[in-house]
Task: structure prediction
Amino acid sequence: MTLSRYATLGGSVALAALLAACDPADTVPEPQPAPDPAPQPHTASDGVGAVNNEPIPELARDPADPLDASPDTAPAADGLIEALSQYCGQSFEGEITSPPVEMDGDFAGQRLVMHVRECFEDEVRVPFHVGDNHSRTWLITRLDDGRLRLKHDHRHEDGSEDTLTQYGGESVFPPVSARVEFPADQFSKDLFEREGIPVSMDNTWIMEVTDTTFVYTLTRPNRLFEVTFDLTNPVDTPPTPWGWEGEE
Result:
């Protein structure tokens, strides 16, 4: 007998033994589905900030909340324009609060007065009087995107515009407080370069209203000029700024 015949004979014997052991009354149970795996808690390795292997619940979001809302970009309800507007029509005296330098000689010893002269929803006009010089007016305007723009309107006594006028800048973001920084805009940089004062291209102007003061600051590398006005003590209204007589 060959090996293949032994293999066939062995298989037949095994099958016969299996059939003999089976009870015909037995039924084969239907297969049961495998149980669902137990939920696994998040761990720190999930990268979702779990602590002590505790599951992190899904946070509900109010559908009314904008997805992109951010306190760093939301405009303030009591920003610079609103803060200045509450003093509309009033004037206040100030003093230089930066270290004295020769460059500020035109301001030293002069009476410094700001006048919150005209107030609109999106603009405030504030003349800045230096002694008998009534050439300066600050124009603070809200842009369509909520940012603020500062311009320095400079006039001669006859009302004509100074060569250095309408310079200033725009805030990088909509302000979230009554303190706003205005880096020099491109118009101003071109003007300063054209007029031979390129150092002013790095100017940043800062305006801030507190409970008791209004602070105007000019800063750039190696330059600081600051005037602080006392908002608790209104003073008499100064003359109309040069060139604005027709704006009464």
Remarks:
- Residues 3-21 form the longest helix (19 residues).
